[in-house]
Structures are given as structure tokens and as C-alpha cells.
Amino acid sequence: MELLSKLNSPVLYLICGGIILFVAVICLIFAVRAYRMGKALGIDTGKMKRVITASATFAVLPSVGILLGVIALSGSLGTPWPWLRLSVIGALHYETQVAEAASESVGIGGLSIANMTPEAFVTIALLMSFCIMWGMVLVIIHGKSYCNKLRGGSEKKTDKPKEEKKKKLNLKGFGDTAMTAMFIGLVSAYIASYIGTIVSENGRFTFTGSWLPLATALVSALAMAVFLRIKKAFHADWIDSFSVAGSMLIAMTAAIFLGKLG
Amino acid sequence: MEKKEIRENREIMKNSEAYEKYLNTTHRLGRLMTALVLLLLLAAPYLIGLFLKAVPNLPAALKAFIGVGLVYLVSCIAEYLIYVPMLGAGGSYLAFITGNLINMKIPCAINARDIVGVKSGTPENEIISTLSIATSSLVTIAVLAVGVMLMIPLQPVLQSPVLQPAFENVVPALFGAMACKYYRQDMKVSLIVLAAMTLLFVFVPSLIGSTSMMVIPSGALAIVLAYLSFRKGQKGAEA
Questions:
Q1: pLDDT given at position A171
Q2: A73 alpha carbon, distance to own chain's centre
Q3: Among A17, A213, B46, B142, which one has the highest count of C-beta atoms within 10 angstroms of its own C-beta?
Q4: Is a pLDDT exceeding 80 seen at residue B44?
């Protein structure tokens, strides 16, 4: 608990808030430059204002969903660090998985404030920054040439033989499937470990391990299924912004009550 | 309406020189700012470490990176290749700095494009995407800042021992939701992989403590099964 107080100290708010402020300034600079250029290009300012209003409105609901993610992580990592991670670059599912993996590697078992040490925290924090930086790295080293290629590449595309095009389309099709498979593999490893915990944590087939992680996962899956059903029944696409964070919070609340049972 | 569009396009062509200059500056600025943010994000754990009197355990970080980081390395490359053409230069730099691409930035930029009716690769798209992503990022930053400020008085409640089972199960809560989302996309592959991994953990319980490393064989098995199923589907479609 003493560490959690340190993780919520003004120093951490200052470090994380400073970086967030810097990113906000970058966004402002880019927005002002784009608006001015748009005006110079003769783009209707009414259109640009409509885009600004629509984007601001569009972003409110997902942002509240992201805030729920900050709350979900605040109990194990304090508030300032998840605030930074989810304001800049991160996403809830990614942050949680990486933090869990780092917790295991550093030897504290899992992501929990009870076992957290300062060394574990800074390792988790570094890994969270490191694992997802590749988009930024690519855009720094390759962004300009990629954008230029895209601007001048439309004619070349039509010269490609049909077979080659077909092959590329097929590979792209499998690319999507492979990404889904990769996440299925990732999720399965963790869900299976919860089953393994119940069955063999204290010796093979002793069935004395903690069942709380599996029960929490099941409640979360159930909540997610309800969200997806509501989305389908009422064409409520906006619910996507809340489904992951909402399912997690429902399951975490359930864990409080389920924990008392066992 | 059409005449107005033609007039607008002519004006756009007239300003092509200024637009080229704008793009070059966007790349220069984008690279510089992205590099600075990256540096700050990597430096922050060390800075926090000074305050906590600790340094990151690099061998442990490397081990975890091999486990889950590689999955995200592939994911980041795919996101980069797919989304840069949609977002243009300015939008891409901002989107990769601010994150939350799939759940917010991409739908937001597409929504903005649909509202004004622009096509990928045009100067209009470049401007609209940048405006859209900058605005949505600023809204997220503002909403989170207000939310976090409101959370400060709630810290004693959040740290209460009664709530600890909730925070200790944040990871199972995440994987439950994700399982529901991804398993429905390929139930057969999901069940086979889950069964195989369960058997592994039941018979070799010492592996439970290294679940993040077990993501590698689990992911590999899922990809192989998905590929076989994909090939089978393609052959069926060709026949």
C-alpha cells in the first residue's frame, strides 16, 4: 500500500502530466497547421469546422471508455502511469497484457499491487513503452518514403499482372486471419493457465488451486456476450467503445463478491 | 454542387507548391515530435525509478518482450502498413503518437472523411484526417485529465482492501472479454488451442508461472491451424 501511495504521488503526476501536456501541444500545432493549409488550399472552412465538431463529438464516448480503463489499472499500477499510457500511444488490452507478462518475468507472479516492488513497477513501465513503440519507430524511419510511394503509386498498380494481384489479395486475406489466430493463441494461453491453476497448481489433479481468475474471466466473457448481443439487436455500434472496459469492470466487481465465497 | 467541387479542385492545384512545402514540413515536424515523445516515454520509467530508487530489470523485460512483445511487434507493423494510406502524413504521425487506433482514431478519421466526402491520397484527405485525429486526441486528453482529477479524492476508496480482489483480477477480466470477442471468429481453432494448452498446464503445472512465454507455442499452433483452415476454404472456393 505504501508503494501505491508513491505511485499516486505528485511527482508521478508531474512526470506523466508533463508528457501528456507535450503531446497535447503537438496535436494543437498539427491541427492549426492543417486548418491554415486547408484554408490556403481553398477547402471550405465550414467543412473543416464540421470535421472538428464531428470528431470532438465522436471521441467523447470512446474517451469515457478509455477512462474506465485507467480506473481498472489504477488499483495495480497507480493512477498517473495508466493515465499516461492510455492518453498517449496505448490501448487497454495491450497495456494489461504487457504489464502481466512483465510481472511474471520480474518474479512477482502476476499484476497485483500486493506483490509489486519498485523494481517490478519500473520494469513493467519500461516494457509497456518498449513493446508498442514500433508504429512510432516505423513512421519515423519510413513514414515519409511510404507516404510518397502511396502518392505516386496509383498508376503502377494497374500494370501488375492479374495473377500477382490475386496472390497478394490472398495473402492479405490470410494476414487478417493470422492476426485473429495470434490473438486466439494469446488469449487461450492465459485462459488455459487459469484452468491449469485450478486442477494442478498445488500438485497434479489436486483441484485445490484458486478458481477466482477463471470465474472472473467467465463473468467477463458473459458480460461481453451481452454487450455484443445488445449491439446486434439495437444496431448500437457505439457500444464497442465500452464493451471491453465495461466487461472488465463488471467482472472485477464480481470478483469482489466471488472472492468472499472462497 | 459539381461546379463547386471543380472550382475547389482547381484552387487546390494552384496551391500545389504550398502543399508540397506543407507536406515536407509535416514530415520533418512529425519525425522530430514522434522521436521526442518516444524518447520521453522510454525515459519516464528511468525518471520514475530515480524517485522510487529502482532501475528496470532489463533481462526480465527482454524475457517478457519475447513472450508478448513479439506479438505486438507484428501487430504494430501491420497497423502501420494498413493505416498510413488511410490517414495521410499528419494523421499518421499523430495517430501513432496518441494510440487507440482501432478503437477510436481510425473510425473517427473515416467518419470525418465520410462527412465531407473525400478520397484517400488527396490533399483534402490529408487535411481532414489530420484535423480529425488532432481533435479526437485532444478530446481524449481532456476527458482523461478531468476524469483523473475527479479520481484523486477517490484514491482512499480505490486503495481499500475490499476492492483488492477486483484489481488483482484485472488480467482474467481482460482475457475473458477478449476470449468472447475472438473465439466467435474461429470457434474450431479456439477450442483446439484452448484444449491443447489446458492439457499442457495440467500436466506440466510449473509452466503456469511462465504463461507469457507459453503464448509463443499457443500462437504458433493457432496460426498453423488457421492457415490449414484458410487453405481448405480457398480450395473449396476454387473447386
A1: 52
A2: 12
A3: A213
A4: yes
More confident site: B171 or B48: B48
Which DSSP letter does residue A111 get?
S
Residue ranges of the alpha helices (H) in B53-169?
58-64, 70-98, 106-116, 123-151, 155-158, 164-168
Distance CA B111, CA B117 (A): 10
d(CA B11, CA B187): 54
Separation of CA B160 from chain center: 32
Cβ–Cβ contact A198 with B under 8 A: no
Render pLDDT for A103-131 as a digit per residue (tens, 0 to 9).
888 888 778 888 889 999 999 999 888 88
- Nearest CB among B75, B89, B164 relative to A179 is that of B75
Task: Kindly state the cell numbers that stand for A164.
Answer: 500477382
Which tens digits make up the pLDDT trace of B179-229?
998 899 999 999 999 999 999 999 999 888 778 778 888 988 998 999 999
Residue B199 grid cell:
492439457
Interchain proximity B88–A185, CB inside 8 Å:
no
* pLDDT at position B45 over 90: yes
CA distance A129 to B39: 10
B166:A62 CB<8 A? no
Distance, in angstroms, between A190 CA and closest chain B CA?
6
Lowest-confidence range among A55-69, A153-167, B104-118, B120-134?
A153-167
Answer whether residue A183 shows pLDDT above 60: yes
Closest CA to A19 of B75, B99, B70: B99
* Long-range contact set of residues A109-114: C-beta below 8 Å, sequence gap at least 24: A109/B209, A110/B168, A110/B171, A111/A76, A111/A77, A111/B170, A111/B171, A112/A76, A112/B167, A112/B168, A113/A1, A113/A3, A113/A4, A113/A75, A113/A76, A113/A77, A113/B164, A113/B167, A113/B168, A114/B164, A114/B168
For residue B98, the model assigns a pLDDT of 92
A180 Cα to chain B: minimum distance (Å): 7
Give the residue on A whose Cα is nearest the Cα of B174.
A248
pTM above 0.80, yes or no: no
Q: Does A150 touch chain B (CB under 8 A)?
A: yes
Nearest beta carbon to residue A134 from set B73, B115, B145: B73
Contacts of B73 in chain A (CB under 8 A): 131, 134
